[in-house]
# Entry
Amino acid sequence: MSKFVQRIQVLAMALGAPGIFLVAFLDSSILSLPEVADLLVIWMVTNNKSRVVLYVVSATVGSTLVARTAGMNEASRDAAKRISGAPASTSGSTLLTP
# Structure
């Protein structure tokens, strides 16, 4: 797995901000890449301080995009269950609470 992570890091560094977005997205969705996005942001910012906002926003959006989509899907399912009279999920989501 470490060779795979190294390849992802090299790809992300070559892509810049889109690479950070990709790593953050993958980390929060299907892969576990602990601290890779954080280290990429630190490394890229030390090499190009003027792009700090771009790098941080790319990591944040990439990471939260999956969580927001998953939360919206869960909220939609809960709303449909309420309409049909079935109990909603109890996963802790507070979206669309009555």
Observations:
- Residues 2-84 form one domain.
- The longest helix spans residues 52-84.
- The mean pLDDT is 76.
- The radius of gyration is 18 Å.
